[in-house]
Design the sequence.
């Protein structure tokens, strides 16, 4: 290409002339940038007021979606137990928070899949097909989520919040959601702490053995955590710890 340009510069310029003209034409045309306008005006019709309220309700639900995911699903127990596992290993930020939260979300989707499939087949699908109304779909969805939460909620916690709300609960199905949700959350926290205690036990034994060995050898200046960390990681890998923890978490919801 460079040799041809040196030998025949005029011919090359003539050949490139149409391309240069087209480029100049494109550059000469003004570039149009679309504008976005947001305006507020008074509502004149009831239909416009209903649409504005629907948009406001949708934005509110979207802002509360993370809280709904955390409090109404298995996410609380899973992420707490995974955090306990990392603390027992004493590996600081390994695995990082992003990995733990991502794993917790994946396991939450796996655990909640039967409930969500039931809601999709009996509530969302029929509603989109026009077979049921919106209030019927919401009622069935609430019932499915309530059944999942009641299976994991202790009767003592449910009775506590039912008493605080002034509701006489004789059966779990009669409990209002304002009592079921906090009872479910504290039940999940207790279960998660129980599982975390079981996870901590073998690592505490390793720390005690290492600390006793170092003291008997007179190595008081050597931090026991520095010596016990490789042994804890080795034991966790040999025992396939992540498999055991994941299996225990998923099985605890069955």
Sequence:
């Amino acid at each position: 290409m460079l040799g041809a340009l040196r030998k025949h510069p005029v011919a090359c310029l003539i050949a490139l002339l149409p391309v240069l003209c087209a480029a100049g034409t494109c550059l000469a045309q003004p570039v149009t940038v679309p504008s976005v306008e947001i305006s507020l005006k008074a509502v004149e019709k009831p239909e416009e007021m209903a649409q504005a309220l629907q948009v406001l309700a949708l934005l509110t639900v979207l802002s509360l979606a993370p809280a709904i995911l955390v409090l109404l699903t298995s996410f609380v127990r899973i992420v707490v137990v995974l955090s306990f596992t990392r603390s027992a290993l004493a590996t600081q930020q390994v695995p990082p928070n992003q990995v733990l939260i991502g794993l917790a979300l994946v396991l939450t989707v796996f655990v909640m899949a039967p409930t969500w499939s039931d809601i999709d087949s009996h509530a969302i699908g029929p509603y989109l097909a026009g077979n049921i109304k919106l209030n019927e779909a919401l009622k069935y969805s609430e019932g499915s989520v309530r059944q999942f939460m009641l299976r994991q909620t202790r009767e003592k916690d449910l009775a506590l919040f039912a008493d605080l709300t002034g509701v006489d609960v004789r059966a779990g199905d009669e409990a209002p959601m304002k009592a079921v949700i906090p009872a479910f959350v504290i039940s999940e926290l207790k279960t998660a702490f129980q599982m975390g205690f079981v996870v901590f036990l073998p690592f505490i034994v390793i720390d005690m053995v290492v600390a006793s060995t170092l003291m008997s050898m007179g190595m008081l200046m050597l931090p026991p955590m520095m010596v016990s960390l490789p042994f804890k990681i080795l034991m966790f890998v040999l025992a396939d710890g992540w498999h055991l923890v994941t299996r225990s978490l998923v099985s605890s919801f069955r």
Observations:
- The CA atoms of residues 236 and 242 lie 8 Å apart.
- The two ends are 71 Å apart (CA to CA).
